[in-house]
Each structure stands twice: as structure tokens, then as C-alpha cells.
Amino acid sequence: MEQSGARRGDAAAMSETVTPRYIAGSIAPLGPDRHPMPQPEPLLPPDVRRISCSIEISDYTKSGVDEAIDNRYWTCVDELAARGANSISLSGFPIASQLGRPRVLELIRKTAERTGAFADSQSEATVDAMRHLGMRRIAIASRWSHELNEKLIAYLVSAGFEVLAVTSVGQWAKQAFSMSIEEGVKLAFQLGREAMRKAPEADGLLLPGGAWRSLAAVPILEEDFGKPVVTNPIAQAWRLISSGVAPPVRGWGRLLENASPAKAQ
Predict the structure, then answer these.
(1) How many domains does the structure of the chain reveal?
(2) Are residues 116 and 6 in the same domain?
(3) Which of 241, 197, 228, 233 is nearest to 215 (CA)?
């Protein structure tokens, strides 16, 4: 664990000293002051720099999402563009689910027009990643509340997926962001296995959300069930891999190892 942490620190330090070839901007739910997290395992090379701006969401309720998007989304877009972002992506599946797919697609379109950058969202990267892997009938390992799950299912159904099973432990933003990394990883395994037991005929498994740091569960769950596993953070990295910006990454699941672009639907 100490060596892994050292590698993460070295990678983060290197990314700050290497001249960036590409700058990937993210619009995050919370900033580091409210949600401090250590560096994740480096999925992108040092010359692909990640920058972020936070909309400082109060909660994943409809009113909380609307307030954050209406008052701070475009400020973040302009800040990331001013910092040289080549791409700008809206993070957070609960945010996208509450907005609904038509509004997310409209935000993406307007962001591209406003900045000239490649505009995206983790939710749409996930949709394309699951299509790329041949996933149509899916199981969802969700820790969200039933209300959020209903919005998530509606988003995915509108994108052409059939949801066979979904789990819940009733979380909203406060519970999600207060979890330790250890608690999040344990829950990812627990709910991932529960979802696949409920729907063994699913084409694959979706673990939505970034706060529970579910990357470590991906290759193990794929080995357990012989099905692809997707999270929205790795779908965001895959978007850069599939476009040729970053090289494939081995050891963290099928999606990141396969650099072929998603086919248009």
C-alpha cells in the first residue's frame, strides 16, 4: 500500500512538471475543500493533465442539482476553457440523472459551441462505453436512494438500455462523500455481487458514481462473473483512450484495455 501511494504521488508530481500535450477538464460535484481525496491510480500518462472546477453541489436532489447547474456550471466551463482545457466533461451520474438525458445532451452541445473544446459528460461516456462492450441488458450496483435510482434507470432506458436489476442503500450526497475509501471499495464489491446475482443474464455490470472509488473492484468482479464492468470514472478515461489521446491501460478491466472507438449508434 505504501509503494502504491508513493507511485500515485510520483505520478501526480510528474504530471505537474511535464508540459501537457492534452488538458482534460472536469466539472466536479465538489471541490477538494469539501471532499479531499488522495490521487487515484494513474490511468492517464503524465502529459495528459487533468484539471477541474467544482459546482459545489448541496445535494443530489432535483433542487440541489438545478441550483448548482444554473448558478455555477457556465462559470466552471469558462474557467476550464481559460485554463486551456481541450475537453470539458460534466462529472457525476446522479447529476446527469436528475437533469435527464435531453438536458445533458443540450449542455454538451452548448458547451462545445461556447468553448470549441470537446464537450462530454461521464454519463454519456458511460453510455458509449457500455455500447462499445456490447452491453444492452445491464445490472446496476447502485448505492443511491430509490428516487435517484429511478432517475438513473430513466436516463439509461432513454439511451436504449434495459435495466434488469438495481441495488440501493439509500445514499444521497452527504452519505456518499462521507465514506472512507475502504468503506467504498467494500460496498462496491458487496453491491456488485448482489446486482449480478439478481441478474446473471445481464450483458454486464454498471457501478455508477465516483466517490466510492470502485476501480479496484472492476477486474475482480469481471473475473468473478465473466462479464464486463463499467464505472463512470473509467468511462471518462476510456473516452480519451478511444480517441487516441491516451494509451490503453492493462490490469483495470476490459474497457481500459480496448482502445477501439465506440461505434456510432
Answers:
(1) 2
(2) yes
(3) 233
Model pTM score: 0.86
Identify the pLDDT of residue 212. Answer: 61
Whether residues 116 and 29 fall in one domain? yes
Residues 97 and 142 in one domain: no
User: Does residue 144 surpass a pLDDT of 70?
Assistant: yes
Q: Let me know if residue 240 belongs to a domain.
A: no
Residues 6+ apart with CB under 8 A from 4: 41
Asked whether residue 72 is domain-assigned, the answer is: yes
- With beta carbons less than 8 A apart as the criterion, state whether 161 and 134 touch: no
Q: Is residue 254 part of a domain?
A: no
Number of residues written out for the chain: 265
Which residue range forms the structural domain that includes residue 214?
A: 126-233
Distance between CA atoms of residues 116 and 86, nearest Å: 8
Closest CA to 253 of 225, 233, 230, 224: 230
Tell me the pLDDT of the chain averaged across its residues.
Answer: 86
**Per-residue pLDDT tens over the stretch 85-132:** 999 999 989 999 999 999 999 999 999 999 999 999 999 999 999 999
- Element housing 27 (H / E): strand 22-28
Identify whether the C-beta of residue 123 lies closer than 8 Å to the C-beta of residue 154. Answer: no
Q: Give the H/E segment covering residue 54.
A: strand 48-54
Q: Amino acid identity, residue 80?
A: L
Give the three-class secondary structure for 265. Answer: coil
